Amino acid sequence: MRKLIVLLAAASALVVASCNTVAGVGKDVSAAGHAMTKTADDAKR
């Protein structure tokens, strides 16, 4: 039973860490998209 609790705690920590990583990647991709849009708009002028 104790091994199961430790295993579940470790799995929960990994899930939480991966969610933060995915959110960070999403922000980075969004920032890159905004930068490209701004560059394209500046090039039109």
Tell me the Rg in angstroms.
20 Å
Question: What's the quaternary structure here?
Answer: single chain
Mean pLDDT: 84
Stretches where pLDDT is under 50 for at least 5 consecutive residues are none
Helix content: over 70%
What's the helix count? 1
* CA(first)-CA(last) distance: 67 Å
- Main beta sheet: strand number and arrangement? none
Strand fraction: under 5%
> Based on helices, strands and strand pairing, what is the structural class?
mainly alpha
Following the backbone from N to C, one meets helices and strands in this order, namely H
Overall 3D shape: rod-shaped
How many β strands by DSSP? 0
List the helices and strands and how they pair.
Layout (H helix, E strand, L loop, with lengths): L1 H43 L1
Tell me about this structure.
By secondary structure, the protein is mainly α. It contains one helix and no strands. It has one helix at 2-44. It is rod-shaped and about 65 Å long.
